[in-house]
Write a structure and sequence with these properties.
Blueprint: H1 2-12, E1 13-16, E2 19-22, H2 38-46, E3 52-57, H3 68-74, E4 78-83, H4 90-93, H5 95-108
Parallel strand pairs: 3-4
Antiparallel strand pairs: 1-2
Length: 110
């Protein structure tokens, strides 16, 4: 939504003369030089031995619909949920709903 975009842009831009530029570290911009295979990602996820909650926006792109079920299943103590209407930036787009989900999950831990 436009409100989320405004929040993100207020923190992500800085003036550069008559123009604006992103504040992000140039070393982390662009495509990654190395990408893990899906088998490697699943192997990493299987090693996580603590309670883990994955919160994904309904319209988010990570993990993709094809990879999500296998990734969720790889987490030994994992749970996952999806926030309706949210995209990739659930913390900006649906902060109240995210806080409620995190609080309920935290309170459910032994």
């Amino acid at each position: 939504p436009e409100s989320a975009a405004r929040i993100m842009m207020a923190h992500a831009l800085e003036p550069a003369g008559p123009l604006w530029r992103f504040r992000f570290d140039p070393g982390v911009q662009g495509a990654a030089a190395f990408r893990y295979t899906e088998d490697a990602v699943l192997a990493f996820l299987r090693q996580i031995a603590i309670p883990t909650l994955i919160v994904r926006g309904e319209h988010g792109h990570v993990p993709g619909p094809a990879d999500a079920p296998d990734r969720y299943a790889a987490l030994r103590f994992g749970q996952h949920t999806e926030l309706a209407g949210a995209g990739h930036h659930v913390h900006v787009e649906t902060p109240r709903e995210l806080a409620e989900v995190l609080s309920a999950w935290w309170d459910s831990l032994p």
